[in-house]
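[worker-b] picked up task from shared queue
[worker-b] task type: protein-ligand structure
[worker-b] ligand name resolved to NAP; SMILES cross-checked against name lookup, match
[worker-b] sequence length check passed
[worker-b] input payload:
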Amino acid sequence: MASQVFWIGLGNMGRGMSKNLAEKGSLDKPLLAYNRTKQRTDDLVAKVGSDKVVALDSVEEGVKRSQIIFTSLSNDKAVEGLYETILKSGDVKGKLFIETSTIHPDTTERIAKSLTGAGAEFVACPVFGVPAVAEAGQLIFVPAGPKSSIDKLRPFIKGVMGRAEIPFEDRPYGAALKLKLIGNTFVLNMVTQLAEALTMAEKTEVGTAPVQQFVDLFVGGPFSVYGERMVKGVYHKMDAPLFSADNAIKDASHALDLGKEVGIDLKNPAVAKDYLQDVAKHAGGDVGDIAGIYGAVRMRAGLKYENDA
Ligand SMILES: NC(=O)c1ccc[n+]([C@@H]2O[C@H](COP(=O)([O-])OP(=O)(O)OC[C@H]3O[C@@H](n4cnc5c(N)ncnc54)[C@H](OP(=O)(O)O)[C@@H]3O)[C@@H](O)[C@H]2O)c1
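[worker-b] inference finished, payload out:
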């Protein structure tokens, strides 16, 4: 029987991933899509075409009609709430659920237990990459769960939504989330490093341009991207965040929790979290971007949150 695929959650990440799935996933039938704010589902249909995506008004309908269901929501509470709705919606037996959000490993394990207990298949699959990378279909996927279930996801990774995978086949679901949190400590640290260096440059005679030049020449990659988001003032001019302060605080908190669980008092995520709380206070947790750490560092140095770019 031809499989029906359903996508739930069209935020920064879900938008790009679902677009690529609909366009390049060689799906048997148009992708079904649902988002809490309906406008985003309509936008996806307008962008990709009604022959490739069908907008739905309810999670329940999508789950009922589908065999493979992807989810991408902001935080643990939202993801747990969604899976409660899914489990209440009826029979999930034999369906495959692929959960791509960044949540606590214990949350993932709980959800996996409920679903597999009800006869469903589950793959925990956080992803690495910024929204532009999701849009370009170049994400790094970290799938965990039974190999047979991961094999069903694989046709949708390379050449569709991702460029690579770091698999945890037949390993605990939580392992994928642990790697995701460890990975995000790099991002938190990188953004904090850039913010402090650029503020230091501003307070001395160096200036920010030579630091950005150094970053481009010496490290490049995401350092350059985030540096530019700061120097060009994008962090305070953007209409909506690309990586919200709330989501970044969640990631830092989960990483700190995980460290505590295994007896490590992590310092780097604690510093980033401290700055992010200033970003949330100043710009709003769902409006401020992770790159706003630059504004937070600036304020503590006696400068305005916004730079003059
Ligand atoms: N942004 C990044 O750079 C990045 C990179 C890798 C992984 N991630 C992770 O991937 C996940 C998605 O990230 P994102 O940046 O796409 O987040 P986002 O832009 O904040 O989008 C969040 C999505 O969750 C939905 N949502 C939030 N609360 C909800 C609730 N209570 N009930 C139902 N739906 C709810 C939102 O619906 P509405 O549209 O109705 O608000 C939206 O579809 C997060 O776990 C994040 O940590 C993010």
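[worker-b] attaching auto-annotations
[worker-b] The mean pLDDT is 97.
[worker-b] releasing lock
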